[in-house]
Write a structure and sequence with these properties.
alpha/beta, D-Maltodextrin-Binding Protein, domain 2, 5-stranded mixed β-sheet, 4-stranded mixed β-sheet, 10 helices
Amino acid sequence: MDPDYALFARVVETGSLSAAGRAMLISPAMVSKRLARLEARLGVRLIHRTTRRLALTDAGERFHADVIAILQSIREAEDRITGVQREAAGPLRVSAPTSFGRLHVAPRLGAFLAEYPRIELELNLSDSYVDLLSERVDLAIRITAHVPATLEAHRLATNRRVLCASPAYLAARGEPGDLAALNGHHLLAASGQMPWRLVNERQRRTVDGRSHVRTNSSEIVRELAIAGVGIALRSLWDVGDALADGRLVQVLPDWEGPDDLGIYAVHPRAPNRPPGIDAFIAFLKCSFDRADWQRIG
């Protein structure tokens, strides 16, 4: 295999020519020269280079995906021949959304670290869109319907969302009989979370409006719903406990958010990724498969 392929993959993985050079023990000038040579031979620009950052072109994204698959296949073939089992150890930087990370990642870390005691875990919680390369994040948990082609995604669970309100709110305001009746109710949503897209088997509807309380926090929306302020569209991982103990009840149960929104573990496409990444993904997948917030009742 052409060694410039591995160099190209390392440049994408590290996010800079100098970092790739340090990893491969060659100068940044030599990295730039070899990358230019590869682009000239292929007849396409693979990477846009600026003084601040690197960005893959469309052709570069496609080529990178193919190169990563080739390098991974080579490594797997070598491991099969040599019988090498790479150990999950060393630093592992993980990013997760604030509420989800607090509720469903942090409580599971003790069991994970007991199973993999040599992993040096760092967990950062943020609701901002973290750039994995520039922030040097190994793995991120994302709740999304779309994953960039530059990232490898592993679906951990479906993000099921239901309409819900407190019994006290429904007793005071009445329970809506259909979607149109929501116009006469107090709706609750964080900034950017409306309009609501809802499905009922093959039917699809959009519910628009203004949140009765303006907030940028999904956690505040949950607490407002429990406190009887209005009706919210919430993920089961967020309100499953409140539905189970009766603090919230489902409203218009035939309607839910579409199932295109998933909970993913994502990481940069790179050859020879640390075994800790695969270990953490497998651990989360197994944990979430058994999670009681995946269902109602």
